């Protein structure tokens, strides 16, 4: 090895760790900012769905009241517990996905390894946090919580109830469907889009990221309603009774969760990817 090659190798080893730390800093910044962008909309939508299921409050009326209250009392809305819960869920999800991709690319470099690491780590983080978020929303906004009627008002929640195993299992199935339809299936389907539609791989990925997660909610939404019913009505009831109760809320909930998934795993994921690229370059330049 020549002296020049040795010097270049030493310089590469000196700068590579800095580049990795810069990438991880970019991952953190992109994930947290992306979660800030989408959390307000998701908080309002999720509260409306929970109240519609547990208290029978009309969906449109709930959305209108919450949006109006959020505009009139922005401080109470943005610093309230529900929005913080939603932000925690999606910030952790995005940051974990970003960091897993960075680490996998750093130590392996193969696209398959990065994809597997991203899905596995995101699933392990998002699923328990998603269940935690839904339980907190059920406690705060459910029929037994005495929730306030407007966003930002003080909420005196009832003591947390024991979570039935059936509710836990149903929430897990719902989140598995959502994660699979948001992080894995879009990548598989994007390659199937014909070039006659678009020949750009970036455009194909954008199309599938904005559509496939939405369509996955046609399957996930009924499971979501059953899980909420298991939590709200913890007595032994025939499964057919639970299905019958949730059936009347099914169309509006499917529409609402399809709308909800657009910011969560459509726009949110796209914003996260773009911000990740920007911040990784920016932080790497200063590390």
Automatic annotation (TrEMBL):
Sorted alphabetically, which keywords does the UniProt record give?
A: Membrane, Transmembrane, Transmembrane helix
In the UniProt record, does the keyword Membrane occur? yes
Where do transmembrane segments lie in this chain? 78-97, 109-132
Q: Which residues form a coiled coil?
A: none
**According to the lineage, what is the superkingdom?**
Eukaryota
Protein transport among keywords: no
Gene Ontology cellular-component annotations: mitochondrion
Q: What is this protein called?
A: Mitochondrial carrier
Question: Which source organism?
Answer: Colletotrichum costaricense
Tell me the classification of the organism that encodes this protein.
Answer: Eukaryota, Fungi, Dikarya, Ascomycota, Pezizomycotina
């Amino acid at each position: 090895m020549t002296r020049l090659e040795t010097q270049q190798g030493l310089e590469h080893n000196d700068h590579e760790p800095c580049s990795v730390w810069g990438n991880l800093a970019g991952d953190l910044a992109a994930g947290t900012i992306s979660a800030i962008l989408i959390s307000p909309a998701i908080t309002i939508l999720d509260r409306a769905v929970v109240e519609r299921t547990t208290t029978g409050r009309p969906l449109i009326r709930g959305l209108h009241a919450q949006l109006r209250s959020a505009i009139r009392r922005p401080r109470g809305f943005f610093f309230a517990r529900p929005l913080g819960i939603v932000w925690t869920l999606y910030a952790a999800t995005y940051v974990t996905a970003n960091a897993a991709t960075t680490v996998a690319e750093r130590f392996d470099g193969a696209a398959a390894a990065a994809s597997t690491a991203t899905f596995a780590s995101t699933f392990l983080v998002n699923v328990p946090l998603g269940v935690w978020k839904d339980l907190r929303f059920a406690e705060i906004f459910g029929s037994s919580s005495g929730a306030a009627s407007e966003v930002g008002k003080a909420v005196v929640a009832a003591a947390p109830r024991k979570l039935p195993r059936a509710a836990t299992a149903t929430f897990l199935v719902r989140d598995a469907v959502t994660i699979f339809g948001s992080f894995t299936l879009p990548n598989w389907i994007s390659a199937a889009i014909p070039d006659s539609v678009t020949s750009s791989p970036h455009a194909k990925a954008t199309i599938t990221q904005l559509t496939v997660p939405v369509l996955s909610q046609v399957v996930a939404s009924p499971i979501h309603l059953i899980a909420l019913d298991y939590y709200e009505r913890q007595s032994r009831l025939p499964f057919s009774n639970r299905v019958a109760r949730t059936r009347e809320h099914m169309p509006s909930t499917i529409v609402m969760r399809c709308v909800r998934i657009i910011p969560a795993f459509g726009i949110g994921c796209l914003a996260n990817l773009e911000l990740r690229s920007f911040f990784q370059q920016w932080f790497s330049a200063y590390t």
